[in-house]
Automatic annotation (TrEMBL):
Keywords: Lyase, Metal-binding. The keyword Thylakoid does not apply. It comes from the Bacteria. Residues 1-131 form the Class II aldolase/adducin N-terminal domain. SMART domains: Aldolase_II (SM01007). GO terms for biological process: pentose catabolic process. One of its GO terms (molecular function) is metal ion binding. It comes from Cohnella ginsengisoli. This is Class II aldolase/adducin family protein. GO terms for cellular component: cytosol.
């Protein structure tokens, strides 16, 4: 992807001479339904995509930073991006800032572009850690007491 491949869509107006992705309808629906969202990113990052391509769920309760920034990350059906934008947008509540889309992508939301990118980056590195750790043995998730401590400390 090159910078000229990006398409700016601002307040419903598309950059002259360019065609946005079909997912622009989902972006609009998320912004309309979720006032806490200031940025939406759609990516195809390799380690996170491994979870979108398999039946294995992505569990954020493995690394404290992952749980703090990612919280819940549901896996949505492939067609949800295009066929049910309004229903899909409703999933992006404050405690669900990311979603995997089966065989398609990962969608990250945030209060700003940097916040959404930070979440996407944490998801990618967490996914890589989980995949690599699985080669060593069973994944050990944080226990409920640890999760409560994190939620208390970070006001989640």
């Amino acid at each position: 992807m090159e910078p000229e491949d990006l398409v700016l869509v601002r307040e419903g107006s598309v950059e002259q001479g360019k065609q946005p992705s079909r997912s622009v309808l989902l972006h609009r629906a998320i912004y309309a339904q979720q006032p806490h969202v200031g940025s939406v990113l759609v990516a195809h990052s390799p380690y996170t995509m491994a979870f979108a391509l398999t039946d294995r769920p992505f569990e954020s309760k493995t690394i404290p930073e992952a749980y703090i920034l990612l919280r819940g990350m549901p896996k949505l059906p492939f067609e949800s991006v295009y066929a049910s934008a309004e229903e899909t947008a409703a999933r992006f509540a404050p405690d669900v800032p990311l979603a995997l889309v089966e065989n398609n992508c990962v969608i990250a939301t945030g209060s700003s572009l940097l916040n959404a990118f930070d979440r996407l980056e944490v998801a990618e590195y967490s996914a890589k850690s989980i995949i690599e750790a699985a080669n060593l043995g069973a994944i050990v998730h944080m226990d409920d007491d640890s999760i409560r401590d994190i939620e208390r400390a970070f006001g989640l």
